[in-house]
Amino acid sequence: MPADTVIDFPTQLRGAGLRVTNQRVHVLSALHQQPHASAEAVFSGIRHSLPGIAQATVHGILNDLTSAGIVRRVSLPDVGSALYELQHDDNHHHVQCVSCGRVEDVACAVGAAPCLHPSHDHGMRILEAAVTYRALCPECERNGNG
Question: What is its main location (predicted)?
Fold first, then answer.
């Protein structure tokens, strides 16, 4: 979703049964501007506009938003902490630069969710498939990294 797209975060929060707070709206706005951000990056992005907010508060808000289905937690190889992005009604994957860590969304590999099926589901109903493509971004390649 383009960063200049306007999202009604208060309505989204109310729809998920969460109270609308200035802190939650700032966290959602930060994730809208910088998808695939760590809790620390979100904190760094909002602490100047919300003096007095604690990093632990940002972690708590991200956990609440993840539980409510507004935010998705993304775990990627070689990333020390979870990354967060706004939840979309899709089953997209990610491409990650192995040098600088840049992460971008990639459309579902085949059709609709879960888009990939294991050779054996052991009687379980597959809900989603998570794929991470490991790559080298053009800037890192030009700089001889990787």
Answer: cytoplasm
Q: Binding site annotation covers 140?
A: yes
Q: Is 115 one of the annotated binding-site residues?
A: no
* CATH 1.10.10.10 is right for the domain spanning 9-74: yes
Q: CB–CB of 59/39 below 8 Å?
A: yes
pTM recorded for the entire structure: 0.80
How do residues 22-81 score in pLDDT, each as one tens digit? Answer: 999 999 999 999 999 999 999 999 999 999 999 999 999 999 999 999 999 998 877 778
**SS3 breakdown of the chain: % helix, strand, coil, rounded to 5?**
30, 15, 55
Q: Which helix (H) or strand (E) holds 40?
A: helix 39-46
Write down the architecture of domain 89-142 according to CATH: 2-Layer Sandwich (3.30)
pLDDT of residue 3: 54
Is residue 108 annotated as involved in ligand binding? no
